[in-house]
Amino acid sequence: MNYFKKILLFAKPYRKYAVLNIIFNIFYALFGTLAFLALMPMLDVLFGIKDAVTEPPVFEGISKMKEFIFDYMNYGATTIRNEYGEGKTLIFVCGLIIVMFLLKNISSYFAMFFITFLRNGVLRDLRDATAKKIIELPISYFSEKRKGDVMARITTDIQEIQWTFLAVLELVVREPLTILITLIIMITLSAKLTLFVFIFLPISGICISMIGKKLKKHSDRAQKEQGHFLSLIEETLTGLRVIKGYNAEKKISSKIFTSTSKLNKILNSLLNRQNIASPLSEFLGVASVAVILWFGGQMVLIEKSMEASAFIVYITLTYQILAPAKQISKASYNIKKGNAAAERILEVLETKNTIVDPEKPKELNSFKNEITFENISFKYDEEYVLEDFSLTIPKGKTVALVGQSGSGKSTLANLITRFYDVNKGAIKIDGTDIRDVTQHDLRNLMGIVNQKAILFNDTIKNNIMLGVDEATDEEIIHAAKIANAHEFIIKRPNGYDDNIGDAGDQLSGGQQQRLSIARAVLKNPPIMVLDEATSALDTESEKAVQEALENMMKNRTSIVIAHRLSTIQNADIIVVLRNGKIVEKGSHQELIAHQGEYHKLVNMQSFD
């Protein structure tokens, strides 16, 4: 229930729709009850069960309100019968019932009309909040989560909330109001019989709750398995070439089939428990009515303590309670079922973001002097990847970071861009700790080119413009020319307006990388971070991309993480790392002459 309350907080902006829904639900409950209540005096008059009231009754106070209302209705029925006859009176009674039910259903429509805006508004805001949170969360969060599980939370789990929690909003006012108003009338008709009815309500509730206890547990398992299934599909689509190349179709299919079989088993158990709620509540309701018929019949036929017309109306009202009671029992199931989905969504929304902006950030709108790593230490898990690491990068210099895998090169790129925060020490730009400025200001000073080009299913133009809000066609073309991309772009069917497909799959690896370079050039940042930007390319593509990189790095401060040492021979400073520490530092010629670690790395690679 706590999760339900938290989800309902999203309904605050739509309070006016909730108020209008409540108003029309009150009319719905009133018209539905009055339609049956109007039958009693009509039956009394038409069948002569009670003496006709020929004079308008006089109101004698609250204590005799019941008698006044019924006598007044009796008086109205008597007047109509005397004036128009019994046949037309019967037509009037039928017409009155039709009008009452028409008004009831009109009220129901408007109640549903207004709650629709609330439901869909909450759903949209919940999706927006979850998407915003996912984008804001640090990179470290996603290294611990399967992408498919995250996708399941923002899609299937939120959809589950629509059919559970938000569906309950339609019932939370209407059904209890219907039951409340109906019960008031039933108590007015016979307090003794109504008290007897209440004996069976706890029995019905206990039976239903016994079945519903395991719903949340089964729902949670189902949603987790759906997340696992989506992860398998995402991995399969991403690695389809490898799967086919290694004839691993059967192996991967087997994993997927295992997941779907497990999900099928969980869903069968879950839905069978859910499906029993409706027939069980209906059976218990009919059983209760049968017992009420027996008990009330004795009051009418033997004790003579209740009039026959009142008993007929009472039984009709009892049936009117069954439908909302059934809906409320289903709502209790839905809340239990929706709790699992809400818990998974709220887990994302309530995850603490470890990379946050300071309350009073310092301004950092330009880069003038140097970047400094001051005795920084960092660890992903238990062991430090970098320890007491210090380095100064002057403005306008190209600094290359080389070393074996796991030496901490890419970690430094993650730290300077503040995808992660250092555990000890500080990274400063012009003497200002990067944790003291906003992430937006920090990253606005940087262009990033990764080992694998990250492109989107959009046009070439929009992919290049990702880092800027506006740019002229001339600026876009200029950036593409610097990145050696203009020639292949204009050969595309639609040029710069050509869509490049999912993740840029319609382009070669070298073309993808040159587009990512053009994106960085158009942003025109003073600092460039290049994380092994050419290591995944063939020799021909590498040359084109390397030339583009050299064009881009002119007059900029660049941090280059390199695997192929031939690409960084012109760097101003080459820093050799081993186990998170600097073992050598200098120019290419100086390090070759020193014949140390860098010399060994160069000898291990062959150059053209």
- The number of strands is 10
Terminal Cα separation, in Å? 68 Å
**What is the approximate shape?**
elongated
CATH topology of the largest domain: ABC transporter transmembrane region fold
Oligomer classification: single chain
- The value of Rg in angstroms is 37 Å
Number of domains: 2
- Mean pLDDT figure: 79
Q: Identify the CATH class of the largest domain.
A: Mainly Alpha
Poorly predicted regions are none
Tell me what portion of residues adopts beta-strand conformation: 5-15%
Examine the secondary-structure arrangement and name the CATH architecture of the largest domain. Up-down Bundle
CATH homology group of the largest domain? ABC transporter type 1, transmembrane domain
Proportion of helical residues: 55-70%
Structural class: alpha/beta
Strand order of the largest sheet: 6-7-8-3-9-10
Question: How would a crystallographer describe the biggest sheet?
Answer: 6 strands, mixed
Q: How many DSSP H or I helices?
A: 23
Summarize the structure.
About 60% of the residues lie in helices and about 10% in strands. By secondary structure, the protein is α/β, with parallel strands linked by helices.
What does this structure look like?
This protein is of the alpha/beta class. The protein has helices at 2-8, 15-37, 39-46, 65-84, 86-136, 139-143, 147-163, 165-189, 191-212, 215-238, 240-245, 249-275, 277-301, 308-349, 409-416, 439-444, 460-464, 473-482, 486-490, 509-523, 539-553, 588-594, 597-603; strands spanning 370-379, 384-394, 398-403, 424-429, 432-433, 446-449, 527-531, 557-561, 573-578, 581-586. The protein has 2 domains: 2-349, ABC transporter type 1, transmembrane domain (ABC transporter transmembrane region fold, Up-down Bundle); 370-603, 3-Layer(aba) Sandwich (Rossmann fold). 62% of the residues lie in helices and 10% in strands. Strands 6-7-8-3-9-10 form a 6-stranded mixed β-sheet, with helices on both faces. Strands 2-1-4-5 form a 4-stranded antiparallel β-sheet, covered by helices on one side. β7, α21 (539-553) and β8 form a beta-alpha-beta unit. The longest helix has 51 residues, at 86-136. It is elongated, with a radius of gyration of 37 Å. The model has no long low-confidence stretch (mean pLDDT 79).
